[in-house]
Design goal:
It is built from 13 helices and ten strands. It has helices at 3-22, 25-33, 41-45, 76-85, 97-100, 106-113, 127-135, 150-162, 174-180, 209-215, 233-241, 251-254, 259-269, and strands at 55-60, 63-64, 68-69, 90-94, 118-121, 140-144, 166-171, 192-197, 224-227, 246-249. The strands form two sheets. An eight-stranded parallel β-barrel has the order 1-4-5-6-7-8-9-10, surrounded by six helices. β6, α8 (150-162) and β7 (166-171) form a beta-alpha-beta unit. α4 (76-85) packs parallel to α13. The longest helix is centred in the first third of the chain and has 20 residues, at 3-22. The termini are far apart. The model has no long low-confidence stretch (mean pLDDT 93).
């Protein structure tokens, strides 16, 4: 595990311990019992009827360790509405406060404003956070293969599926891709997506060629999500040429004066 990720994971374990004290698991389960079923994040991204189309998961984040503050005038609900109005298939919301400027409460606020499914993007290291994510309204969760043992990945996927949520299982390198690919679709098909993050955790630089190379190792790329470093319509076309039809785009959109317009132009220019 790289030093940056290792430090974040250690902090996250401390945060989870505090969260357990503040909101016991039984209270989370009570909150979940009052919610309706999650929206289908998987179906929003994997379009079997239009297999050649590109679907964008548009991300909401205020800052990041690599870029610093990305957006000063940060209104997550307004940004979500702009994404929904301009072609996003789903929303990704950063909820880590320390490094990304997020808040867990943003998820309910976003879901109240738009009809798209919402992914909780955070560092999930404890099964408590899976319950916490659903209680917060999340329709999907991110699991980072490098951050947790494989046995935890499996346990978290099982619970997420029982709660009706999609999991986006993210890998950064070949080793974790080959170890994780068999867990995609577990325990049931149509509940898991496989993400390849194009950011090199050693240098923090991004290159979309990374996911293109790794995609060649997969027989089925229909559930593959390209993450990080996607900035242009040509990027989307190149991804499609490698069988990748789902892209998670955040920093590029968040840096633009009008994130919704930027998304529309990205999708319009990227049409096959």
């Amino acid at each position: 595990m790289h030093a940056v990720l290792k430090d974040i994971i250690a902090r996250k374990h401390r945060e989870v311990a505090h969260a357990r004290e503040a909101v016991p698991l039984e209270r989370l389960k009570e909150q979940i019992s009052e919610l309706g079923r999650p929206r289908n994040f998987f179906q929003a991204c994997v379009d079997r009827r239009h297999p050649d189309a590109t679907h964008v998961i548009a991300e909401i984040k205020r800052k990041s360790p690599s870029a610093g503050v990305i957006r000063e005038d940060f209104d997550p609900v307004a940004i979500a509405r702009a994404y929904a109005d301009n072609g996003a298939s789903a929303i990704s919301c950063l909820t880590d406060e320390h490094d990304f400027g997020g808040r867990l409460e943003y998820i309910h606020r976003i879901r109240d404003a738009v009809k798209l499914p919402v992914l909780r993007k955070d560092f999930i290291v404890d099964i408590y956070q899976v319950w916490e994510s659903r209680a917060a309204g999340a329709d999907a969760i991110l699991l980072i293969a490098e951050a947790i043992p494989e046995c935890d990945v499996i346990d978290f996927q099982i619970l997420a599926t029982e709660l009706g949520m999609t999991t986006l299982l993210e890998v950064h390198d070949v080793e974790h891709l080959l170890r994780s690919v068999n867990n995609v679709g577990f325990p049931h098909a149509s509940y898991s997506l496989l993400g390849i993050n194009n950011r090199d955790l050693r240098t923090m630089k991004t290159s979309i060629e990374h996911c293109m190379r790794l995609a060649e190792l997969l027989e089925d790329t229909s559930v593959l999500v390209a993450e990080s470093g996607i900035r242009t319509a040509d990027d989307l076309r190149r991804l499609r040429a490698h069988g990748i039809h789902i892209a998670l785009v955040g920093e590029h959109l968040m840096k633009q004066p009008d994130p919704g317009l930027a998304l529309r132009e990205l999708l319009r220019g990227g049409v096959a």
